[in-house]
Structure formats: C-alpha cells, structure tokens
Amino acid sequence: MKHIKILWIIILVTDHLLPLIITRFYPNYKHKEMALSVLGSRQSPVKWIYNVWCIISGIVFCIAPYELYKENSSGLMIAIWVLLAIYGIGCEIISGLCPLNESKEDEDVITKIHGGTSAIGFMTLLGVPLLLAILQFQAINIFMGTISLVSFIVAFAFFCFFIMGEKEKFANTVLRYVGLWQRLVLLSCYIPLFVWCLK
C-alpha cells in the first residue's frame, strides 16, 4: 500500500512539473493560453514524451484508487474510483493514444475522439473532491473533509473560468488564459489526493 501511495505522489507531482520542463524544447508554447493537450499534438516537438507520460499516468489513476477503496469499501468510494478511472482513461490514456491536430481548422476523427474523451474525463475528475469531502465528513475526518470541499469549490470556479475562456466574447479578457485555468483545475483536484497519500 505504501508503495502505491508513493507512486501516486510521483504521478501527481510529475503531471504538473513535466509540462514546465519539456516546454523548454517547444519555444512557441504558451502556458497561460494553450491547453496541456497541445503538448501532445501531432505538431508538437515533445509529443512522444508527453503522450507516453499521459498513458503511464492514466494507468496509475486507474489502479491507485484501489488503495482508497481498501480503506473504505462503501458505495461512495466505488463511485470515486470509477470517476478517477474514467479520468485516467479519457483524459490521459486515450488522449495519449489519440493526439489532436493543433490546428482547430483541421479537426479530424482522432481530434474529435481526443476532445470528447478529454472533456468527459476532465468533468469526472471535477466531482472527485466533492465526493471525497462527503466521504471524509461521514468518517468525522473534518480536516480532510474541509480540504476536499475547499478544493472542489476552487476547482469548480476555475473550471467555469476555463469554459468561459473558450468563448470568443472573452478573447480579450483575463479569462482567455485557458491553459492557466486548466492547470489550476487539475491542481485543485489533485490536492486532496496528494494529502491523502501523505497522511
């Protein structure tokens, strides 16, 4: 169990650090304005590194929640496991196997698969902190419950910014930084998982 938690911590941290490192080899990439998927696009010079990592990360997200399940085998915990597995498969594994075309004008079938599965995975991840909060409050773990609830509220706010930033009418506002909002959503959703691994 301890080894799985350590592995998950490595995954959670590397998911955020790797993009910062490999963009040194992608001069035209803009962290604030571009989504993470662009790093794995067919035109990206770092696509192999990023896509292989996504697949590895996705596999861990499908397996590691079993340790959460062993601590609490309730129906709520099964739901959390399922949501994390959907995120791992849709937002990580399929995204890695089906890289998008960076040009929005040249959207093909693979890009549509990437976009659809990523959107589903992203939204399922958003629900994890809320379910974790409910689970922890039921167990009278106020500390973890509070962290999870605050993480959900913050993640939901950033998710709204992310969605709004995709709209043309917000193109000249701070909301246009969709890359930043995406990263903050992921960071907020990862925090309760990271804290759980450390406890």
N/C terminus separation: 12 Å
Mean pLDDT, as a whole number?
90
Count of individual beta strands: 0
Shape label: globular
**Rg from alpha-carbon coordinates:** 17 Å
Number of helices: 7
Quaternary assembly: single chain
Q: Helix/strand/pairing class, anyone? A: mainly alpha
Question: Unreliable segments (pLDDT under 50, ≥5 consecutive)?
Answer: none
Helix content: over 70%
Largest β sheet strand count, sense and barrel closure: none
Write a compact overview of the structure shown.
This protein is mostly helical and 199 residues long.
Structure description:
There is one protein chain. With 199 residues, this protein is mainly alpha-helical. Helix content is 72%, strand content 0%. The chain has one domain (2-198). It has 7 helices and no strands. Helix 3 packs antiparallel against helix 4. It is globular and about 50 Å long. The mean pLDDT is 90.
